[in-house]
Amino acid sequence: MRAEKIKTSGLAERLGFDATYVWRVLNGERSGVSPNFLAAVEGLLNQPVTVVGSATSWIQLDDALSRAVQAFQSGQLSASEAMFVRVYETAGDSPIERYVAAKAKQWRAGILRDRNVLRRNRSTGEPGAIELYTEAIGEWRSVDPGMIIETRFMLAACQEMLRRNDVAVGEYLSMETEAKDPWLKARLAARTGAILTKMGELVAAGSRLDRAVRVASHLDESGPYAFAQEKLAIWLIRKGDLDAASAALDRSASAIPHPSALRKIQALVVRSDLKEQEGQLGQAIELLEEAERICAEVSYAHQASIVSARLRDIRRLM
User: Cα(307)–Cα(295) distance, rounded to whole angstroms?
Assistant: First the structure.
């Protein structure tokens, strides 16, 4: 899974061991563990680690994070949010525990971002997505600097939601030149292409989307490819090439047979735009009503506002 690759790659590089080996040890394997590995972990943790596993605390913390992620992926958003909070509030000061805490903050920030809770609540003091992403970056600086760029990606998405498109585009382009991971390069190119499409800069947008599709088509994971094809479909709709847009949406859907709630909502919105351009307003409304229902189920305020506005616009045309 992508989460496992993200989790182990930075630590493996810092420890000087294979990522698969690191992943097994992080998940509790102790049989035949190399003394050199334990010495490297001792240096990272700043405390003794024995073959019988005195690192139990951070392994348990990582298990708690995994359960929270599973709850999120099964649609239990409120429960998973509370679980992520418990993870980062109970984490200790060792570098590996701070690593897990940063991941938990990043996951919770994603939930808040999808609810359009971007800034700290002045009444309750509860952080918004921007504050949590910023805190996560602070953690990454000391435990895994390679994760900073991915968190900056999420912060740029928040800027986009705040309609600061120029700021967001500048950040995405800057990160794309810095990124080494093809997975992240594909996501950045697609995201930049999507914003440029919204800004009406279709030539520049087409170039970024073409790059995103080319890079994503060579990845093991299908998520970036589905994302790029969806953004390509939006661009094709803007250009009036509706048949090609429909084909791109089909490719996006087939790449992820079991999409998340967010992906379902976004796909329904794009498909409704296509139906509107084809003059099939009734079908466009049905798609948006389905998206509206999912938004209500998962409390996605940002997507709900977009869907509601689109429904009003199309109903005026009826």
Answer: 9
Tens digits of residue pLDDT in 121-173: 999 999 999 999 999 999 999 888 888 998 999 999 999 999 999 999 999 99
Nearest to 210 by CA among 231, 240, 183: 231
Within 10 Å of residue 133's Cβ, how many Cβ atoms? 26
The mean per-residue pLDDT over the stretch 16-32 comes to 59
> CA 277, CA 165: separation in Å to the nearest integer?
25
Q: Are 176 and 189 in contact (CB under 8 A)?
A: yes
- Secondary structure (H, E, C), 37-61: HHHHHHHHHCCCCCCCCCCHHHHHH
What is the tens place of the pLDDT at every residue in 262-276?
899 999 999 999 999
One-letter identity of residue 110: G
| DSSP string across 155-219 | HHHHHHHTT-HHHHHHHHHHHHHH---HHHHHHHHHHHHHHHHHTT-HHHHHHHHHHHHHHHTT-
Question: Tens digits of per-residue pLDDT, 103-124?
Answer: 999 999 999 998 889 999 999 9
DSSP letters, 246-269, are HHHHHHHHHH-SS--HHHHHHHHH
Comparing 46 with 202, the larger pLDDT belongs to 202
- pTM here is 0.72
Q: 231-263: string of b/e by CB count within 10 Å (b at 16+)?
A: bbbbbbbbeeeeeebbebbebbbebbeebebbb
Q: Tokens 């994070």 identify what position?
A: 65
> What are the two backbone dihedrals, phi and then psi, of residue 253, each rounded to the nearest 5 degrees?
-65, -40
- Tokens linked to 125: 């003091």
Nearest to 22 by CA among 96, 98, 107: 96
Half-sphere exposure of 253 (CA within 13 A, CB side): 14
Burial 75-111 (b: 16+ CB within 10 A, else e): eebeebbebbeebbeebeebbbbbbbbbbbbbbbbbb
Q: Worst-scoring range by mean pLDDT, 93-97, 99-103, 180-184, 269-273?
A: 93-97
